[in-house]
Amino acid sequence: MTLSVQTKAGPAGLIADLQSLGLRLEDNEVGIIGRRGGAGPSDHKAVNLGSRTVMIPIATASACESPFVASRPDANGISEIRRDGIVVSHIEFPKQPRFYDLKTADGTPYSYIATLHSSDVLATTLLQSCIRYGNRKTSCQFCAIGQSLAAGKTILSKTPEQLAEVAKAAVELDKVKHMVMTTGTPNLTDRGAALLCESAESVKAVVDLPIQGQCEPPDEDIWFERMKAAGIDSLGMHLEAVLPEVRARIMPGKSSVPLERYMDAFDSAIAVFGRGQVSTYILAGLGDTPEAILAMSEQLIGKGVYPFVVPFVPITGTPLENHPAPAPAFLGQILPKLGAMLKQANLLSHEMKAGCAKCGACSALASYEV
Ligand code: SF4
């Protein structure tokens, strides 16, 4: 079903505005149960808008002040989105996936092992902890990886067997199309690559599901070949911020991995995974200027790396909970130009085999590639 989008800015502009300002809900129980904290799109809900499923902040402090309100769904499951009282669009909330009803033999709910992102992505955090988390001097200031663990909504580490069981069920029951495996950084050597290898191997042994692995650049480039051989189809190594002073302030621990190491690692990873199968996440709104983000993106595109620029969302309980989300106008200085650059370079999100850039639900960027 195609849902109407009646706004001058069109669907891409409305998505960017909603992701910047958030959405208030008349009925908090609709859609897939949102998750507070954790890695990935915390404090968001998936929403079908136009032809896309996107993740919209709903439980953040700024979302509570949003001019956008979603009405209680009607008998057909359609909600109106009103801005300052005027209807600007209609949306639908995807239904809870069926694999959420299942538990492993030891009684662990499948949703504690992996969750549905957007409408067709299975996402898991292999290790729900990080060597840098728990110490404000080293932890990434935006990170909430420990919150869902503390809330009892996930388990500390997911075994390869559990991941395979859940992935198979999610494909069979809910037709998920690809899988994102991220991890807290367990050490300063392979930085999670070994965990990704054993997990991907186990999933691929039972189900043919494209997988994106996400980790920091490992100490040795041989890990890229090992990850590829284990069944990882695409790789994300996330810069998060690009200017040295922003990196140092926002990621006091992770910024010890120099930008030069990321750049070398991108080259080595592209040689293994191929052009357009390596990506990075850049959070817009943490202090980097639009010019800095676009300059870094240009450099990355030149290497064949997809720069997935996502609006920063302040998560409750993190050191940045009161940091403002980026204004729509700020995103407007980046996303349309970046979308045009990606199109010009023929480096397109839908051609990725798996991962966040392919999913695209956390940013309006893909809407500007066309
Ligand atoms: S873009 Fe990545 S983090 Fe966001 S919903 Fe999709 S898979 Fe999840």
Topology summary:
Layout: H1 10-21, E1 24-25, E2 44-49, E3 52-57, E4 68-70, E5 78-83, E6 86-92, E7 115-117, E8 121-125, H2 147-150, H3 160-174, E9 178-182, H4 193-206, E10 211-214, H5 222-230, E11 234-236, H6 244-250, H7 259-273, E12 278-284, H8 290-303, E13 305-311, H9 328-332, H10 335-345, H11 356-359
Parallel strand pairs: 1-4, 8-9, 9-10, 10-11, 11-12, 12-13
Antiparallel strand pairs: 2-3, 2-6, 4-5, 5-6, 7-8
Helix pairs in contact: 3-4, 4-5, 8-10
This protein binds iron/sulfur cluster (SF4).
Describe it for me?
This protein has 370 residues and is of the alpha/beta class. 30% of the residues lie in helices and 17% in strands. The chain has helices spanning 10-21, 147-150, 160-174, 193-206, 222-230, 244-250, 259-273, 290-303, 328-332, 335-345, 356-359, and strands at 24-25, 44-49, 52-57, 68-70, 78-83, 86-92, 115-117, 121-125, 178-182, 211-214, 234-236, 278-284, 305-311. Strand 2 and strand 3 form a beta hairpin. Helix 3 (160-174) crosses helix 4 (193-206) and helix 4 (193-206) packs parallel to helix 5 (222-230). The longest helix is centred in the middle third of the chain and has 15 residues, at 160-174. It starts with 9 loop residues before the first helix and ends in an 11-residue tail after the last helix. The mean pLDDT is 92.
Q: How far apart, in Å, are the first and last alpha carbons?
A: 20 Å
Class based on secondary structure composition and strand pairing: alpha/beta
Give the radius of gyration: 19 Å
Small ligands present: iron/sulfur cluster
How many beta-strand segments?
Answer: 13
Give the number of helices.
11
Profile the largest sheet.
Answer: 7 strands, mixed
